[in-house]
Amino acid sequence: MRSAGAALALGIALVGCGDDGSGASGGTGGLGGAGGDGAGGSAIDVGGQGGGAEACPVGLESCGDACVATTVDPAHCGGCDVACGAEEVCQNGACAFECVGGATDCNGSCVSTSTDPANCGGCGIPCGPEEVCQNGTCTFSCVGGAKDCGGACVSTSTDPANCGGCGNVCGPEQVCQNGSCAFICVGGTTDCGGACIEIGTDPANCGGCGNACGPEEVCQNGTCTFTCVGGATDCGGACVDVGTDPANCGGCGNACDPEEVCQDGTCTFTCVGGATDCGGACVDVMNDPNHCGGCGGVCALGEICNAGVCDLVCTGGSLECNGACTNTNTDPANCGGCGNACAAGEICSNGACDLQCTGGSTECNGACVNTSNDSSNCGGCGTPCPSGQVCSNGACDLQCTGGTTECNGLCVNPSLDTSNCGGCGTVCSAGQICNNGNCDLVCTGGTSECGNACVDLDNDPDNCGGCGTTCADDEACVNGACQDLAVVCHDIGYNQCPTGATSFCVPPPLDPTSSAQAKIACEACYGAPCYLETADCAGPGWGPNPAGAYECGDAYFGYTTGCSGDDGRVWYICSSYTTYGHWGK
């Protein structure tokens, strides 16, 4: 910074340059007024003690008694006394709205072309009367659970002007939570006029509802203070960057000369290190909230300049989601992270979406189920009913269908089930089947059922040709017909006797099992009585009848009755039950 002595010497030197030293040329009159120091900022006092006027430095214009930067000065924007409006800034010599947070200047209003139905996707692009603007496109459908209310997509779960439905406005002291108006604010916030406010940081409600901080104050821990953040310094109640502020360069009140800028806390005439000269100050437009992205780019209250873009500074553990500070621990639209919306019927608890089951239902594996009738969760989660059973009042019961009946906990068909034929517990015997509820025999090998038994109707004398058809004692059943035994024995060539008689019609020996059986055989074949001899058989041959043998006592094929003549033919049945064919004399 220049000294007062240096300024005085410069003034004397300039006077010496006049034609006669009388002051006709006016002199310089000094650069900074009587004190000799520069005023700082975009205006420099050009009044002098000599009463004359001196040209302003390059880039400044003389307006009255001051040199001003008409490219950025809102009181002399583009020319002297051309003042910008209260909500305007001066950029490149023209008054313009400075829209922040991604908004766009459309005819003097800052609008979001992503959601404004009158400027959807760009200024002057209106949506239809039944459309809303979403992501810069006119559409008839709101997404993400939002609803179309008057051409705007709103969340009826949280919007106090449309709480639970369009037009349902909450009271002035209420907020909208889960679609219902309530006075309960969460996350340490306070209900201020129907809005949940963080009174620890909100400058409009600092420490309490309605307690607004001054225009140059911030709210910290519920108290309005001049404590500056982001490395700024409190100079006379204003937060300034002493690294770049030419009026407080390196420290409060340390002003640079009119032709100097403040860079890194030092007055200099050149901006270095990528800094930008904004109204006589070297600023980092990548990080300066008053010149964010360029000179005059002022970030809104609560925002910081990050890489040349104004960003929110969220506190209390909240995160920025879509341009708003959001509590991701409780917000169902941003649960656990931005854009992570909970499904319908879920709430956000500790950053996780949880089901909220109602009507007596229970959460089982992420779904609300009724354990009184859910077959997969009968009476409790993970308790399935077996196949064929249903859940009734929380208990698994059989539900027999298609003509089946419950027997001992199983559905059975009593028309076909051999263990429950015609009714539970009725068991069919071996070899039987259940047919229309009745136990029936299954006869094989050409046999037929007669009186619960399988018989051969071709040779059974008790069922000859049909059930209950019985042959006489001197008859046999042959091919299903009763025939005389003697006739049968002769007709079949003496090879075998009918059923019930042992074969004695051929010479080869046979072995009856008893004398009674041998006697019956003789009588059965020939229909004649047998007589017991006293001696055992001597073997087959001619001669007298051996003792101890049964002798057929009738004529046979025309021979003498009694078989005792020379021309008689006899059969001997020995007591050893071995038979022999024998021709007798």
User: What structural class do the secondary elements suggest?
Assistant: mainly beta
Indicate the mean pLDDT.
72
**Order of strands across the biggest sheet?**
42-43-44-45
The biggest sheet amounts to: 4 strands, antiparallel
Distance between the termini: 177 Å
Number of helices: 3
| Radius of gyration over all CA atoms, rounded | 62 Å
Assembly status: single chain
Which residue ranges are poorly predicted, with pLDDT under 50 across at least 5 consecutive positions?
A: 1-41, 48-52, 486-585
Helix content: under 10%
- How large is the share of residues in beta strands? 25-35%
Task: Tell me the total number of β-strands.
Answer: 45
Shape: rod-shaped
Walk me through the structure.
The protein is mainly beta. Among the domains are: 362-398, no CATH class; 405-441, no CATH class; 454-491, no CATH class; 515-582, no CATH class. Mean pLDDT is 72; it is low at 1-41, 48-52 and 486-585. Strand 40 (475-478) and strand 41 form a beta hairpin. The protein is rod-shaped and about 165 Å long.
